[in-house]
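Dear all,

This email documents one entry for the complex benchmark we are building for the journal club exercise. For each entry we list the sequence lines for every component of the assembly. Then comes the predicted three-dimensional structure of the complex as a token string, followed by one or two observations. Please use this as the template for your own entries, and keep the labels exactly as they appear.
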Amino acid sequence: MEQVEINKMLEEKGFIDESIDSKLNLVEEIKKLKKEKNAVILSHFYVEGELQDIADYVGDSLGLAQEAAKTDAETIVFVGVHFMAETAKIINPNKKVILPDLKASCSLAESAPAETFAEFKANYPDHKVITYINATAALKTMTDVVCTSANAKQIVESFPKEQKLIFAPDKNLGGYINSITGREMVLWDGACVVHEQYSVENIVKLMDEHTDAEFIAHPECEKPVLLLAKHIGSTTSLLNYVQSSSAKKFIVATESGILHQMVKACPDKIFIPAPSADSTCACNDCEFMKLNSLKKLYLCMKYEQPEVTLPDDVIEKAKIPIQRMLEISK
Ligand code: 13P
Ligand code: SF4
């Protein structure tokens, strides 16, 4: 395919599309390309199971950032969403970072446009800014320290109690951290579409039907949902919890992709996705994560496109709060 055609396609679709031989063994082809191009595949727990199984590393946002920081591969293939690939690029400005679909965004990252946030921040001149990693690179340039759901408490507590703080963009995670640390961080009004759709009423009904099940939740869920949870944590923390708990059944309030790892780790246990208000939707699927596919991954590795690129000054500024987070989380 000509580069002009590729560029046009990327502008329109966000991914390269061409018909491929249906007999092609995509898993084998991807493995071959990985060797040929000295690439590493990093996948998030929310992508389809086959995309987790093909990865060199699969994990939560913190694990993925840590892995990106230590890889010596020339190319990083990020099977997740855009802000994750962007973070890998900021950590590795001299490496090529590609992702299967450029349009794999995140509702949280989109909820905090940099210009609007700059105006908001100007109202709090004596506050430091903690930004959840689910944010654009532009927002990270206005940040003191980045955090993930795995280390948010630790990052917040790395500041003296008297230090005034802004937490962006997730109001649910920020509110939860306020409640467990006793801080009063100013919260940006952003949220995740997947984690905000759970219905307390339907969860309680399900818990009544399965009295032997433990209810566990990601901290991006709203407070009334979190109040019902036996365990709250990042995807890695939820995965560890189901392995260590003696319970045999769990109701899980987070994106459906994590169930793939839970079933793999505990084949004898039962995992029930937490219900939303609408029983007909696939509401536990993140539409952005699910833009990734084996075919798009193969084509992205073949053409080394779409690539994540960022201006040097953005990389330079956004790198500081990310490095701080990595230092604190060592
Ligand atoms: P984790 O860092 O817990 O994997 O969360 C990532 C995410 O996007 C949650 O919606
Ligand atoms: Fe963003 Fe929510 Fe999807 Fe995570 S699940 S990537 S926070 S939209």
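Observations: The longest helix spans residues 312-328. The chain has a mean pLDDT of 97.
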